[in-house]
Amino acid sequence: MIDRSSPGDTRQIPVRALPAHPSLDHLRKEAKRRLKDLRQSVPSAQLAEAQREVARDYGFTSWRRLVAVLSPVAPSSSELPYNWGWDLARRTADAQARGDGAAVEVAYRALIAQKPPGLAELEANFAQFLLTRPDGGTEARAIFRRLLRQPTATILAHYATFAQGAGMVDLDGREQIYRRAVAMDDNLLATHHYAAFLWHERGSPTEALRLARIAAEGDTPHPLVQAIYQGIYAAMAWHNGDAATAETWFRLARARSKDDVYATLAFAHMLTATGRESEGLTLAAEVVAHQRLADLGPLLARWFGAVVNFLRYAHGDAGQRTEALLALETAPVPPQATSNALDLWRTVKAATANGHPAPQRLVTLAQSLTGQSAPSNAWRSK
Question: Does the pLDDT at position 377 exceed 90?
Fold first, then answer.
């Protein structure tokens, strides 16, 4: 059962973010330098005290927790728990972009027939997909009835979303399922799902951040999974006004795996919106050149490229602005964009404050990329 909720386990706002390339060697050297400084006033100071101070500077309650998230992953570890993750994305990307649900269903069934490791989780994902298909609800419910004969925290986490989508429970019922899942064991996926639910559905940022932090600090052998949890926690922290924590965790996510292109894009956006355009645009260029981008499907890949061009238009030089503006004219708006997870209005405000020549155009582009109207005074500098 995940607890870790005692008042003494609260997080402090970090004094600073981790450096651009965080490493254990860097932290150990920093702790030794801190020890020398401490001994000038407290001759009896020990290394453990210096290490604890360094950890607290970066927003961690202990040196052990800071070291844990930077510990190297065994070279034999796979990026994802099951190899069908990327395989499924590749098989269904084109069909999803075309809106061809039948082809996606065929790909799912072919993969399930192979009975790969992690079959139960694959079937849980398939059941959720079936809800979008004509007359697919009956089979979807049958799948979960079978899976729930021997429920795991992971299956329950998937079932919570499914049950609400199928009209079987309301928000309160969905939350009860999440609570049951996280009470079963220290399951990071269930904790992550519950945190996202509290953030998006309940509007409970304090508890959502606490749980997201647990998932981010969790010990998983799969680098991409941990990077995803860390990147999402970083994005939450930034939205909650804690830029130093956000930067620390974006850097930790990238140190764990650079295959989470969403985290890289979100970090690039944060950097450009907080006055570090050069580093942000460098990361943005990495996104559009990333080999994994194609696995997300053509629609989402085009949207990623459009957001990168938006950043270039907002913060680049005149030549970049012209090229980026032309590329944005036909930008797609996939369903994932409607959550406005990147909060592009921050870019609008930052670029306007820096003297962008066409602030209203920035508003129009942000609206097209997010599918949402501009907040009040989104483009006016204060």
Answer: no
